[in-house]
Amino acid sequence: MKHIFRFVCMSAISATLGCSCSSSQGGKLEYPVAPTDSTVTDTYFGTIVADPYRPLENDTAPATLEWVKAENAVTESYLSKIPYRDKIRKRLTALNNFRKTGLPSLHKDGKYYFFENDGLQNQSVLYRTDKLGGEREVFLDPNTLSDDGTVALTGISFSNDGRYAAYTISRSGSDWTEIYVLDAKTGKPLDDHIEWAKFTGADWEGDGFYYSAYPRPEKGKEFSNANENHQIYYHKLGTPQSADRLVYEDKAHPLHFHSAYVPESEDYLFVIGAGEGVGNSVMLRPLKGNGNWVVMEPSQNYNINIVDVIDGKIYFITNYGAPRNRLMVADVKAPQRSNWRELVPQGEGVMTGVEMAGADNMIVEFEKDAASHDYLYSRNGTLIREIEFPTFGSVGVSADRDHNEVYYSLASFTSPSTVYSYDMTTGESKLVNRPELDGIDLDDYVTEQVFYPSADGTKIPMFLTYKKGLKKDGTNPVYLYGYGGFNVSLTPGFSPNRLLWLENGGIYAQANLRGGSEYGEDWHLAGTKMNKLNVFNDFISAGEYLVNEGWTSPEKMAIVGGSNGGLLVGATVNMRPDLFKVAIPEVGVMDMMRYHLFTIGWNWASDYGTSADSKEMADYLLAYSPIHNIKNDGTPYPAILITTADHDDRVVPAHSFKYAATLQAADTGDAPKLIRIDSKAGHGAGKPMSKVIDEYADIYSFIFNNLGVTPASH
Fold first, then answer.
1. What values do phi and psi take at 664, rounded to 5?
2. pLDDT tens readout for residues 82-96
3. Whether 683 is catalytic
């Protein structure tokens, strides 16, 4: 690819902002005029592509900041005129106000640790107790780390002797990570503090830990510039970060990720590499003595997820030779692929996880048709029994090889996460904690799974959740959600915010598109690179199915997706603007020609390919890139509310900025085309409860208003 750069004086870059006031809700809105540079073009294998809104990629430029301010003013003006917006916010607040308790974990100090949110706390609190159900104490309260809840606890790791706890935080939703350390016995903080870490936890060895970080970024470009040279360091407690020892880097591959793993025995250091292929490489070396690095898997062609290292044996899940994954074992002294031995073979479902449980057993987790199925195995790979769950849903497991206590949580579309204990001897499950939602009868709602044909005849599963007694008369409002990428499976889960949609007669539809992991690596690859159109066709076919089967009509259908799902929404709106009434692309990847040039966008090339790969790949990307395929001929588009945030350094807000500017300047009818730009927020993870409620209030208000549905009062 050849980039054409031209010198442009500041006077040639339009930074003028138009009227930020809107007309009535029934008329066409007036939008701010975005900063532009009509001279900017890129050339991809002979194809010249204009990029007039390139100035919006500079998210700290005064012109961009003024445009953001003006856009938010237009959006707020529109939303403030929706009469039931405040009522929706109050109802969402009430629906979220119930106690949420996470899985307990038994630690070496004999105490149980668990997260809990009393209802409306911005961040969940980490507690510990000597006995479940007994008196508890706060171990770490993330709500005390900031005044507004925008500092989120993203992980915690205890040293193997139980003396220390290292915890990671994110500020304002950024992927940048800071690490702090507590004295685990007293809970008091130590002086240790790590900055500019990213995509990392803390893996302990002795009185220190390994972590991954990038070089300190350029000031003012912390959330937009490409990240390169991911390094692994060792930090010894009581020393400054400047004294940390560089353990591993790969200058020949600056775009690779590197993460450390140290087993409980602390006798080996594993380095896992990723970022180039669809899987990951693995290498290891002894931590005692002067042993050399040994390569377990050199390529990034296969997923290798290490479960544990016990008595010199590496237990790991891989899709090598098994697209739906299998559990393997290898000797640490001869870990090469030729020496791998199968312990639990590939099954009907997709193997998603393994937890060691006591000295002799393990729990192997599978997904079948996007729902969890867990099985108890002996350590030697012999099946003992399936763990019986009361309904299909998503399951999390808490178990450890140091004790026989097993706990699992089960959540579904109609049931919040409920915690059970499991007796490995009898196979009996006992209720430990079930959330109580005041004034809501979840038995009023039902979920069914349907399978519909995509454009090429492939059967696609989809979950439908709705209120019992709903009639298929074509008038029901539908909230259709999808993702379809990066080996991510959309499984059943509970959302109190979704209850507002359901109690107002809405159908929640969740489609399991190709590109995910629902049926293994083959399903994933069928939605990547030159197969990406399969994902969009799967989503369009979901909408067509819902209409043809009488569930709804195009006038009553809203589509929603975030990140890669935002790309999904943007692309399908361009392909079938007639099929949907409302579209909500959240933090979406909208510029497929330049996505790889920002932060860690280059890491997505294994799913997307890049415009630099080949003419064929560049042409394919250009043909569906949301920004580059917006119609400008009067074709009516759905009402669109774009969401992004100022600290999103995963999918930089420039994607949404340029998409919004292009959409607002095009002739796509009178339906509103708005952008909601959050402050002190990122890609979504760790967002405080108050911001979550505000965002959902705006999204639901926008959807209801444009579907012509007035929500009931409560």
1. -70, -30
2. 999 999 999 999 999
3. yes
